[in-house]
Amino acid sequence: MLERNTMNIESLKTFKLVVEAKSISKVASQVHMSQSALSQLISRIEDSLGYKLLERSNKGVEVTDMGKIVVKYSENIIRNYEMMNQELKRYERKMDTVMINGNWSLVNYSIPCILYKVKKRLPDHKYELFSSSNEDTVRDIVNDICDIGFISCHAREKSLLHHVIGKEKVVLVAAKDYNIPDKIDVEDLYKYEFVKLKNRESVNYCLNKELDYVGVSYESLNAVFEVDSISSVKSSLENRFGISFLPYMAVKKELFEGRYKIVEVAGLMLEYDIFMITKQWNQLSESVRETLNLMQELGRDGFC
Fold first, then answer.
1. Nearest to 13, CA basis, from 104, 82, 64, 61
2. What total number of domains does the chain contain?
3. Please, which residues have CB within 8 angstroms of residue 88's CB and are 6 or more apart in sequence?
4. Are residues 172 and 258 in the same domain?
5. Rounded distance, CA 168 to CA 191, Å?
């Protein structure tokens, strides 16, 4: 109810309807008020402003010149109020959008699977997924560009939370009929031609580290050429141009179909932790917290 010298948006909307309809009785029915209550509402608006806004008669109502001024400004007030509400709702939806970064192989093969399961359980949240390097993912978390990051090594940024969410494996693969034994020694790697995946931190970081550990230089392997996409590597493998180290998830289908084979390298283990990183718990929105809890609940089984 209106207090003296105050006015609310709904009152202005109702007054505008009365002016447009030129009838208190018609609008009273429309807004589910009695004619008496609506007439009193108009009177209170007039008292609040100190001017007569409507001329009443048996034929209906006519707006006064003062009333026309109120209608003119009411339209702007109502429009701005509605625009404010729309912007608030847009911001609220944005707050419910969880931005996720991950290294290239995870974004293309592993994360969509767990994200699908999360979305089924949390249908009101919106998710956007982007690929980036480990370093860029950490930077984006710190700078609030993304909410959750998936990286293949423990970040040095001590202000972030780290959760081990699963493991990713890199395998040496070849076409099923490629002339190479199913198991070779580390030194034998130098005997074969490689198709290398260029600038893929998620693969090369772990690979370089492990090969260095067993005394093999990745850079010294006999590379036929380097390509920047998994699809190009696969095409090269199918054309028997060489062998390649690739994420297991990227070749899982081809292995199942019998088109590729894994070549075991004695003494070489290429499996590493997948870390999920975020800011501290008290800095996260409710939608991010719910997503984190569910991802941790799903854990390694969440990845396909």
1. 82
2. 3
3. none
4. yes
5. 27
Phi-psi label, residue 178: left if phi above 0, alpha if psi -120 to 50, beta otherwise: beta
- CA dist., res. 248 & res. 25, Å (int): 74
Residue 155 and residue 63 share a domain = no
Separation of CA 11 from chain center: 41
For 218-244, the pLDDT digits (tens) are 888 999 999 888 889 999 999 999 999
For residue 275, the cross-strand partners are 151, 164
Under 8 Å between Cβ of 6 and 48: yes
CA distance from start to end of the chain: 58
**Domain that includes residue 33, residue range:** 9-93
Tell me how far apart the alpha carbons of residues 122 and 133 are, in angstroms, rounded to a whole number.
Answer: 27
Q: What is the CATH number of the domain that holds 261?
A: 3.40.190.10
Q: What is the value of pTM for the model shown? A: 0.63
In a domain, 99, yes or no: no
Supply 209's token pair: 């580290």
